[in-house]
UniProtKB/TrEMBL annotation:
<dbReference type="InterPro" id="IPR027417">
    <property type="entry name" value="P-loop_NTPase"/>
</dbReference>
<keyword id="KW-0963">Cytoplasm</keyword>
<keyword id="KW-0067">ATP-binding</keyword>
<keyword id="KW-0677">Repeat</keyword>
<keyword id="KW-0228">DNA excision</keyword>
<keyword id="KW-0547">Nucleotide-binding</keyword>
<dbReference type="GO" id="GO:0003677">
    <property type="term" value="F:DNA binding"/>
</dbReference>
<keyword id="KW-0227">DNA damage</keyword>
<dbReference type="Pfam" id="PF00005">
    <property type="entry name" value="ABC_tran"/>
</dbReference>
<dbReference type="GO" id="GO:0005524">
    <property type="term" value="F:ATP binding"/>
</dbReference>
<feature type="domain" description="ABC transporter">
    <location>
        <begin position="455"/>
        <end position="752"/>
    </location>
</feature>
<dbReference type="GO" id="GO:0005737">
    <property type="term" value="C:cytoplasm"/>
</dbReference>
<dbReference type="GO" id="GO:0006281">
    <property type="term" value="P:DNA repair"/>
</dbReference>
<keyword id="KW-0267">Excision nuclease</keyword>
<comment type="similarity">
    <text>Belongs to the ABC transporter superfamily. UvrA family.</text>
</comment>
<keyword id="KW-0238">DNA-binding</keyword>
<keyword id="KW-0234">DNA repair</keyword>
C-alpha cells in the first residue's frame, strides 16, 4: 500500500479571484505560497484556510461563549478537511495606543510588576500600583505619560508679523476666529505692530498675561454691543484650552494641530518613566521598575536570572521565555519600554512572531504573511532556522513569501497565478524545488543579482551633518542628488532615524512614502482613492443631464434594499454569519434608475468594471488619464476601477500608495522599503519606474534590504554595525561595485547574491 500522507484537504475554493481550485497541503512541512502580487495567495491562506480553522475552533465552545467571540463566515469552498488550530502572524500594523510598548504587547510588563510587588524593597503593595495608569502609580507631574508637553512660543507666534497679519499661527487663536479678533481689536495691543517691536512689558502681557496679582481686560465687540473680557495671556490660554484637556473631544482642532506647536521633554519628576517617585524607590538588586523597563533585553535576561527568592524566581521564570524569544530573533537591543509605534517594519514583524512562539504546543498550523518583510538578509537566515524548528516540533508551517532564501527552505512550494487579479486564482505549480525550476515561468530559484557597473555620477549632494536622532552617533553623510540611492543595514541600525528624521528635517520638501497603511473599507474603491470617481460621475451627469449623486452608491444612486453595500447580512442569531448578495441590485450596489443611464454604451457599473489598462481607451479626460497612467507605471494595470481597497493584497496597497505620490511634482522621493510584498518580477517593474524618475531629474532614495534594488543603485550607504546601541554609524558609502569589496554584512550577502 502506498504511504498515506497527513494533509489538509481543500476542494472547490472560490474566495475572491480563486477559480474553483483544489489543494492538498502536507502537514508537518514548510509550505510556501508564492506568485505575483494579487495572484490569489492570501485568498487561499487567509480567507479560506485560516478563516475556516478559526470558525471550526469556535464550534467547540458553548453557544453563550461563542456569541462573545469573533464570528467567521464559512469560506466559499466545497470541502475543507483535516484542519488544525491556527496561529496567524499577519503583516498588518500592530494595533495599540500611544502607550503600547514591547513589554505590554508581549504581556511581560504585568509579570515584571508582579515581581516587584512580591520581592521589591521597600515593599509598595499590589502589582497594579506599579503601573503608570493607576491612581497611586502615576506620576503627579505628567499624569503617567512620562513627558511634559509645553507650548513652544516660537512655533506659536511669528515674531516678524503683526496680530492683524496672523502673527499667531494657531487657527483658533487667530483671526477670523473670535479669540483672534478679540486680541486684535480689544485695545490692549497695537494690531499693526510686528510682535518683535513690542515693548518688553507689552510682549510679556501678550504672551504670559498680567503680572501676578494684577488683572487686564480687553474689549470684545458683538453685533449687539460689547463687553470687557479678562485677558489671561496667550500661553496660559493655550495650555488651559488645548493641553490640559482631552483633545479627542475637540471638533475643530486635532491632537496633531496642537502637538505641532509644542515641545515634548521627559518629565523631570519621574525621569520619563510616568511613575510616582515613591514607586521608583522600590528596588530589586539595586534596580527599580523603570530601570528594568529601560534595560536592553539581553541585560534584562541577566537580571531575571539573578533573582533567587523562591516566589520571585517562579515569576521571573514566567517572564524569561518571552524575553528570550525576542533576543533569539535578534531583538536583544530593544527594551520593554520601547514604544511599538517607533519600531521599524522588520522589528515589529519579529516582535509579532516572538509573541506566538512561546508555546510548547505542537500539531498547530502556523501561518506567516511574508515574514521576511523588513528583514536584512542576515536576519532572514535567523528566520529560516525558526521556521525549520517549528516544523521539526511537529507543526505545519504555511508561508506567503517572495524572498528566495525563504522559498528555498520549503518542503512544498505552491505557486499561484499565472498572473494577477482576473488573470490569477489558479495553482500554477505544486511540488518540490527541482520541479519548480522546470514548471514556473515567473519564480526563478537560480536568480542572481546584477550589479550596476555604470552608476550615475552626481554633481551635487544632499548633506546631513552631526545627526544624533535616536541611536545615531553624530553622523555626517553626503547623499548624491539626481541619483538612485539605497540606504541599507540590519534592523534598528539607524536607517529610518537618518532618513525620516535627520534628512527630512534638512529637506522638508521631500516626498516621503512610509509603511503606514491606507484607509481601506468596503466603500472605498480604486477610483475614489485616486480621486477620479467624481470626474467619472460628472462625465455621466453631463452626458445624461442627471445629478452627479445619482451615480454614487453612497448617495442618490444607492440600491434602496442594500443601501449601496451590494450585500445583505441577515440576522441569523447564534449561527455562523451569512453574507448574501443583494437580490435587488445583484451586487452592483446601484439602483435600477442609476443603471438605466449610459455613457458610450456603458452604465456606471460597466465603467467601474474597466481595468486600469482599459480605462484610457474609454475615458479620455486628461486628469483621469494622468492618474491612471501612474497606476500602470507601478504595474497595477490589471485592477478594476471599482475594486474595493479593502480587497487589495499587501503588495498592491504598497504600490497604490506609491502611485499616489508619483503624480506629485516633487524633486526628492524617499521610499521606505518599496519592495515590501512584491514578487521579483513586480520589483523589476518598480525598479524601472525609479530609474525613469531619476532620468527625468529627480532624486530617489530607498531604505531597502532587497539585494536587487541595492545592486541596481548608483550609490549605497550602509548603517550599523548592529541594532540599537550597537548601531547608528555609517559603515559604507560608495557604488554597488565598490561594496563587493567591503567588509560589511550587506556586502557579504551581495557577494553571495551575485554568485547565486
Amino acid at each position: 500500500m502506498p504511504e498515506k500522507r497527513d494533509e489538509i484537504i481543500l476542494r472547490g475554493l472560490r474566495e475572491n479571484n480563486l477559480k474553483n481550485i483544489d489543494l492538498n497541503i502536507p502537514k508537518e512541512k514548510i509550505n510556501v505560497f508564492t506568485g505575483l502580487s494579487g495572484s490569489g495567495k492570501s485568498s487561499v491562506v487567509f480567507d479560506t484556510l485560516a478563516t475556516e480553522s478559526r470558525r471550526q475552533m469556535t464550534l467547540n465552545y458553548p453557544l453563550y461563549i461563542r456569541h462573545q467571540m469573533p464570528r467567521y463566515e464559512r469560506p466559499h469552498a466545497d470541502l475543507m478537511q483535516h484542519l488544525s488550530p491556527v496561529v496567524v502572524v499577519e503583516q498588518k500594523p500592530v494595533r495599540g495606543n500611544s502607550r503600547s510598548t514591547v513589554g505590554t504587547y508581549m504581556d511581560i510588563d504585568p509579570l515584571i510588576r508582579l515581581l516587584f510587588s512580591r520581592i521589591g524593597s521597600p515593599p509598595i503593595g499590589s502589582a497594579t500600583e506599579f503601573s503608570s495608569e493607576s491612581s497611586f502609580g502615576s506620576c503627579p507631574e505628567c499624569n503617567g505619560f512620562g513627558e511634559v508637553v509645553a507650548p513652544d512660543i516660537h512655533k506659536l507666534i511669528d515674531h516678524t508679523k503683526s496680530l492683524r497679519d496672523s502673527a499667531v499661527r494657531f487657527k483658533p487663536l487667530a483671526p477670523p476666529g473670535w479669540q483672534g479678533r478679540w486680541m486684535r481689536d480689544g485695545g490692549l495691543f497695537d494690531p499693526d505692530l510686528p510682535i518683535k517691536d513690542f515693548t518688553e512689558e507689552k510682549y510679556n502681557l501678550l504672551v504670559y498675561g498680567p503680572p501676578e496679582g494684577e488683572r487686564a481686560f480687553s474689549t470684545y465687540y458683538y453685533k449687539e454691543g460689547n463687553r470687557d473680557i479678562e485677558w489671561d495671556g496667550l500661553l496660559p490660554r493655550f495650555i488651559r484650552l488645548y493641553i490640559n484637556r482631552d483633545l479627542t473631544k475637540l471638533k475643530v482642532v486635532s491632537q496633531e494641530d496642537v502637538l505641532a506647536l509644542t515641545t515634548r521633554t521627559p518629565c523631570p519628576v519621574c525621569e520619563g518613566s510616568g511613575l510616582n517617585p515613591r514607586v521608583l524607590e522600590c528596588k530589586i538588586n539595586g534596580l527599580n521598575i523603570a530601570h528594568y523597563a529601560r534595560l536592553e533585553l539581553t541585560e534584562l535576561l541577566g537580571e531575571l536570572e539573578k533573582v533567587d527568592d523562591p516566589i520571585g524566581k517562579s515569576i521571573a521564570q514566567q517572564a524569561h521565555p518571552g524575553v528570550k524569544q525576542l533576543v533569539g530573533l535578534g531583538l536583544g537591543y530593544l527594551s520593554l519600554s520601547r514604544k511599538m509605534g517607533t519600531l521599524s517594519g522588520g522589528e515589529a514583524q519579529r516582535v509579532k512572531i516572538a509573541r506566538h512562539l512561546g508555546s510548547s504546543l505542537n500539531n498547530i498550523t502556523y501561518i506567516f504573511d511574508e515574514p521576511s518583510a523588513g528583514l536584512h538578509p542576515e536576519e532572514i537566515d535567523m528566520l529560516t532556522h525558526m521556521l525549520e524548528s517549528l516544523r521539526d516540533n511537529y507543526n505545519t508551517v504555511v508561508v506567503i513569501e517572495h524572498n528566495l532564501a525563504v522559498i528555498k527552505t520549503a518542503d512544498e512550494i505552491i505557486e499561484m497565478g499565472p498572473s494577477a487579479g482576473r488573470g490569477g486564482g489558479e495553482v500554477v505549480y505544486q511540488g518540490g524545488q527541482e520541479g519548480l525550476k522546470k514548471a514556473s515561468a515567473i519564480t526563478d530559484l537560480d536568480h542572481t543579482v546584477t550589479v550596476n557597473e555604470q552608476p550615475r555620477t552626481a554633481e551635487n549632494t544632499f548633506s546631513i551633518e552631526n545627526a544624533s536622532d535616536n541611536n545615531l552617533k553624530n553622523v555626517s553623510v553626503e547623499i548624491p542628488q539626481n541619483a538612485l540611492v539605497s540606504v541599507c543595514g540590519v534592523s534598528g541600525s539607524g536607517k529610518s532615524s537618518l532618513m525620516f528624521g535627520a534628512f527630512t528635517g534638512n529637506y522638508p520638501e521631500t516626498i516621503a512614502v512610509g509603511q503606514s497603511s491606507i484607509g481601506t473599507s468596503s466603500r472605498s474603491t480604486l477610483a475614489t482613492y485616486m480621486g477620479i470617481m467624481s470626474d467619472i460621475r460628472s462625465i455621466l451627469a453631463k452626458q445624461t443631464g442627471q445629478p452627479a449623486g445619482l451615480f454614487s452608491f453612497n448617495s442618490l444612486g444607492a440600491c434602496p434594499v442594500c443601501e449601496g453595500k451590494g450585500i445583505t447580512t441577515p440576522n441569523v442569531a447564534f449561527a455562523d454569519p451569512v453574507t448574501v448578495t443583494c437580490e435587488a441590485c445583484k451586487g452592483t450596489r446601484y439602483s435600477d434608475e442609476a443603471l438605466s443611464y449610459r455613457y458610450k454604451g456603458k452604465n456606471i457599473v460597466e465603467i467601474l468594471e474597466l481595468t486600469i489598462d482599459e480605462t484610457n481607451e474609454y475615458l479620455e479626460m486628461p486628469k483621469i488619464v494622468k492618474k491612471v497612467d501612474t497606476l500602470k507605471d507601478v504595474g497595477l494595470g490589471y485592477l478594476t476601477l471599482g475594486q474595493t481597497t479593502g480587497s487589495l493584497s499587501g503588495g498592491e496597497v504598497q504600490r497604490l500608495k506609491l502611485a499616489s505620490h508619483l503624480k506629485k511634482e516633487g524633486q526628492i522621493y524617499l521610499l521606505d522599503e518599496p519592495s515590501l510584498g512584491l514578487h521579483a518580477r513586480d520589483n523589476a517593474h518598480l525598479l524601472d519606474v525609479f530609474q525613469r524618475l531619476v532620468d527625468r531629474g529627480n532624486s530617489v532614495i530607498l531604505i531597502e534590504h532587497n539585494l536587487n534594488m541595492i545592486a541596481a543603485s548608483d550609490w549605497v550607504i550602509e548603517m550599523g554595525p548592529g541594532g540599537g546601541k550597537k548601531g547608528g554609524e555609517v559603515l559604507f558609502e560608495g557604488t554597488p561595485q565598490e561594496m563587493l569589496e567591503a567588509d560589511t554584512l550587506t556586502a557579504k550577502w551581495l557577494r553571495a547574491g551575485v554568485k547565486g
